[in-house]
Amino acid sequence: MKIIICPDSERVAGVAARLLADQVRARPESVLGLATGRTMEAIYRRLVGTVRAEGIDFSAVTTFNLDEYVGLPGGHAQSYRHYMERHLFAHVGVDPGRTHVPDGAAPDAEAQAVAYEARIGRAGGIDLQLLGLGENGHIGFNEPLSSLASRTRVVTLARATLAQNAGMFGGDPSHVPARAITMGTGTILEARKALMVVTGARKAAIAARAIEGPVSATVPGSALQYHRDCLVLLDPAAAAAL
Ligand code: GLP
């Protein structure tokens, strides 16, 4: 793992956006693995600005998002498909047919997960995977005790995750869907490059466990210590316990 501590969270977002933009400029047909969550909003805002200012061509880029809530169709305001359209896809000229988010409304979620994994393979794998870190150490929706070798599948969300994400559902954890489709930790580790972004004091303790602690299924983010090309960007608040 390479660790960079930026002076503040805005600069974290700027560096992450720069790396994504440079990836696409160097290889216009890149396959990007994308993430959602509050941390990513600032990154996508910066990326949209960079793409517009520098005229970066996203039309040949393929994207695969990490996860989606089971039961939410793509048009639902809290779905991750909707999040991606709003924060990135609508603004960078990506070919809609090349964007992939698991279909949370698929009648057979397990089959959808298997098909999603196969689609990543057919695209040639992921060149650069963007990742956040959950307050409980999850990556994607791989909750603590997920197998470090897991593949794309249906998971039940941890109570801590329901609480962490309740803000998007009117503040009530019981309104957050209980299940999700997520790329597995094993799937994530196969990306050629990984970029994990962690900001804010609430993540300080778990960032230290993921980066410096033993590799353990109790902290799925720690699996990235095994990745051969993983960069972690932090702001000083998130790096406070390193
Ligand atoms: C969410 C997502 C993750 C995300 C993480 C952190 O539940 N499934 O992909 O990276 O939790 O979210 P945030 O940036 O809002 O703290």
UniProtKB/TrEMBL annotation:
Class of this enzyme: hydrolase
EC number: 3.5.99.6
Keyword Hydrolase: yes
Domain Glucosamine/galactosamine-6-phosphate isomerase stretches: 11-227
Domain of life from the UniProt record: Bacteria
Keyword Hydrolase: yes
PROSITE patterns: GLC_GALNAC_ISOMERASE
Keywords: Hydrolase
Pfam families reported for this sequence: Glucosamine_iso (PF01182)
Cleavable signal peptide: none
Stretches of the chain forming a coiled coil according to its record: none
Name used for this protein in its record: Glucosamine-6-phosphate deaminase
Organism: Gluconacetobacter sacchari DSM 12717
